[in-house]
Design goal:
Blueprint (H helix, E strand, L loop, with lengths): L3 H15 L11 E5 L2 E4 H18 L6 H24 L6 H14 L4 H10 L4 H23 L6 H12 L7 E10 L6 H16 L4 H8 L10 E6 L5 H4 L10 E6 L3 E11 L6 E11 L7 H17 L4 H8 L3 H4 L4 E5 L6 H9 L9 E3 L2 E13 L3 H30 L3 E3 L3 H7 L1
Antiparallel strand pairs: 1-2, 1-11, 3-4, 3-6, 5-6, 7-8, 7-10, 9-10
InterPro entries: OMP_Chaperone_SurA, PPIase_dom_sf, PPIase_PpiC, PPIase_SurA, SurA_N, Trigger_fact/SurA_dom_sf
Pfam families: Rotamase (PF00639), SurA_N (PF09312)
Keywords: Chaperone, Isomerase, Periplasm, Repeat, Rotamase, Signal
C-alpha cells in the first residue's frame, strides 16, 4: 500500500506535469525512500531550519552544512522507521493525549500555550502542522517504549540486591549534566581507526574545542543533534556505561574515550548539582484487559468492557469475578485483577494517566493501550518514603531505566540495519556524480 507521503509526492508530480505552459517549478520531491514510506525534501528543509533556529537560540555552533545534513537525515530516517513501527502495532494518539503532551512542552519551556503557538508561528509552521508533528513523535515514542520494554528482563534477585544497596544510602543523590559523543563501529573503518578518531576528538576537547559542535559533527549517539546533551541525570538514571565511568570527577571533566560493544564514547560532565529528596506516591489498582483479534475488533472489545461496567454497577457481577473469568492479563486475573501498590511511572502512558487521575472507587471508561483494551479501578493511593516497597520500586525503576536506555540504542540500530533505505538523487546531483 502506498503511504500518504508517497501519494503526496506522486500528486505533486502530476500537478507539475499538468502545467506544461508554465516554466518547470519543483514544489517538493521525494528525497529518501524508507521501506514503504518516504522523506520529502520539505521534511529535510524543515528539520534543518529547526536545528539552525534552535542552535541560534542557544548560541550553539554548528558543523559544516554537509555534516549537519547527514545528521538530520540520519534522525529523519530513524523517526520514519519508528513512526512505521507505531503504525504497525496500532498506536493511536487521540486529541486529549496530544493536548496533554503539548501542554507539557509549554510548561517545560516556561511558556503559556499562546506563547508556544507564537513561537511555532515564528518558525514558519502552522499550529496544525505542529500538532501533527507532536502527534507523530508521541506515537513513535510509545511504540519504541512498548517494543523495547518487551526485550528487557529484570530478575527478582537484581531488584533485591539493588534495594539493599539503596537502603544503605541516603535518599539524596548528586545530579550530573552529561555531554556524550559516540563513535560507532562500522564496515568502512577498522576498530583501531575508530579508536584513533576518538583519541583525536579527545585531544581537540583538551585543546578547548566546543564539545557541542564536536558532538554535532562526529557523534552517532542518540543525542547528537542536541550537541550530545543528555540533560540532568542521577547516576542510577544513566546508561550503565556512563555510571561506571563517573566516580569522583567534577564539573568540566572529560572522561574517555572508553569502549563498549557499539563503539567508543567520550563524556563531559558539564555541571553538577546537589541533593534531591525522593518521595513516592504508590497506587493500588485493578483492571480487566481484553485483547483484540481477527474475530474481535476494537469496537467489540470496547462494547464487551462497557457490558462489564454495566454488570458491576447493577450488582449482577463483581469486578473481581469478571477479572478472574475474562481478563487477558493472567498475572493480575488470578488476584481479582489487582496490580498491587505500584508507582504510576511503571505503566504505559494511557494507563498511567488513568491511575493518576481516577477518583478512588470509580471505574474508568474503556480505553486502549498497546496491550489492548482496559477498564481500571483505583482502590487506594499512599505516600511512601524509604519503605521497603518504595525501595523495591525505586530499584526496579533504576534497573529498568539503565537497561531501557541501553536496549533502545541496540533496537534502533537493528531497525536501521533491517530497513530498506534509498536516497533519490536529483538531476543536478547526477550531473555532479557523472
Amino acid at each position: 500500500m502506498m503511504s500518504i507521503k508517497r501519494l503526496l509526492a506522486v500528486s505533486l508530480t502530476v500537478l507539475l506535469s499538468s502545467h506544461s505552459i508554465a516554466a518547470p517549478q519543483e514544489l517538493d520531491r521525494v528525497a529518501v525512500i524508507v521501506n514503504d514510506g518516504v522523506i520529502l525534501q520539505s521534511d529535510i528543509d524543515a528539520s534543518l531550519k529547526s536545528v539552525r533556529m534552535g542552535a541560534a537560540q542557544k548560541g550553539q555552533a554548528l558543523p559544516d552544512e554537509e555534516v549537519l545534513k547527514d545528521q538530520v537525515l540520519d534522525k529523519l530516517i530513524l523517526d520514519t522507521l519508528q513512526a512505521q513501527e507505531a503504525e504497525r502495532i496500532g498506536v493511536r494518539i487521540n486529541d486529549q493525549r496530544l493536548d496533554e503532551a503539548i501542554s507539557t512542552i509549554a510548561r517545560n519551556n516556561d511558556q503559556t500555550l499562546l506563547e508556544l503557538q507564537q513561537s511555532v508561528a515564528d518558525q514558519g509552521l502552522s499550529y496544525a502542522e505542529y500538532r501533527e508533528q507532536i502527534r507523530d513523535e508521541v506515537a513513535a515514542s510509545e511504540a519504541r517504549n512498548a517494543l523495547v520494554r518487551r526485550r528487557i528482563s529484570i530478575l527478582p534477585a537484581e531488584v533485591e540486591n539493588l534495594s539493599k544497596l539503596l537502603s544503605e544510602e541516603t535518599n539524596k543523590s548528586v545530579e550530573y549534566r552529561i555531554g556524550h559523543i559516540q563513535l560507532r563501529f562500522n564496515s568502512s573503518q577498522s576498530k583501531e581507526e575508530v579508536e584513533a578518531q576518538a583519541q583525536e576528538i579527545k585531544q581537540m576537547l583538551d585543546d578547548d574545542e566546543d564539545f557541542s559542535k564536536l558532538a554535532l559533527t562526529y557523534s552517532k549517539g542518540p543525542k547528537a543533534l542536541e550537541g550530545g546533551d543528555w540533560g540532568w541525570l542521577r547516576k542510577e538514571e544513566m546508561p550503565t556505561i556512563f555510571a561506571d565511568q563517573i566516580t569522583t570527577q567534577g564539573k568540566s571533566a572529560i572522561i574517555g574515550p572508553f569502549r563498549s560493544g557499539a563503539g567508543f564514547h567520550i563524556l563531559k560532565i558539564k555541571d553538577v548539582k546537589g541533593l534531591e529528596t525522593v518521595a513516592v506516591t504508590e497506587v493500588n489498582a485493578r483492571h480487566i484487559l481484553i485483547k483484540t483479534s481477527v474475530i474481535l475488533s476494537d469496537e467489540g472489545a470496547k462494547q464487551q468492557l462497557e457490558n462489564y461496567i454495566r454488570q458491576i454497577n447493577s450488582g449482577e457481577a463483581t469486578f473481581a469475578d469478571l477479572a478472574q473469568q475474562f481478563s487477558a492479563d493472567p498475572g493480575s486475573a488470578s488476584r481479582d485483577g489487582e496490580l498491587g501498590y505500584q508507582t504510576p511511572d511503571l505503566y504505559v502512558p494511557e494507563f498511567k494517566h488513568q491511575v493518576e487521575t481516577l477518583p478512588i472507587g470509580l471505574i474508568s471508561d474503556p480505553f486502549k493501550t498497546v496491550h489492548g483494551w482496559h477498564i481500571v479501578e483505583v482502590l487506594d493511593r499512599r505516600e511512601v518514603d524509604r519503605t521497603d516497597s518504595a525501595l523495591s520500586n525505586r530499584a526496579y525503576r533504576i534497573l529498568f531505566n539503565r537497561k531501557f536506555n541501553e536496549e533502545v540504542s541496540t533496537w534502533l540500530q537493528e531497525l536501521r540495519a533491517s530497513a530498506y533505505v534509498e536516497f533519490i538523487e536529483t538531476d543536478e546531483e547526477l550531473d555532479v556524480v557523472n
